[in-house]
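Usage

Read records sequentially. Each one opens with the input sequence:
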Amino acid sequence: MPCDAVSEWYRVDQIKDLLYKRVSVIVGEKESATAKNCVSGILIAADPISHSCVLLTGKVNKDDPIKSELYVIPEVDWAKITILPDQPSSCELEPLKAALTAATKSDSSQPITPELTEKLGRLQTFIRGYNLTAEIQGSSLRVQNCVTILAPFSSADCRATNEIVLDRVANLVRQFNAQE
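and closes with the structure output:
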């Protein structure tokens, strides 16, 4: 699956199709796919902007899934990822998925005012107008499954581990609040 000629970024929907699949990723600059420069594991996170991914390379630690063996790979060539034949069962990954979901969710137990609830809906519509996914999760908005926007929904209330994506979404939130 080659990159789009107009953009050097790999298509997000193609990367999403690789999530939770057992894959082999070439590590480093060497072109040959020898055993020493390939890492195999289950792709649990991917960032098409920084071209990085996270693989689960061992078994899921059922006592504490976040302590499972993870491998971060920078500068991934998405077109050269190989999907391996032995795929994990969904029950094998359930503890890890649950732990990752719990770790990325905000505290949505705090109720927000009706005005903020309406603002949350308008912000969701605004973000979706830029062809980005935006899902309401309790009292926060999750954008592209990587940026969380907390109440009261200012650019300072954006949280993400990827600074580039965080900056871009924060700028959109700034634009939204300027028009409010």
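Summary fields computed downstream for this record:
- The radius of gyration is 18 Å.
- Confidence is low (pLDDT under 50) at residues 1-9.
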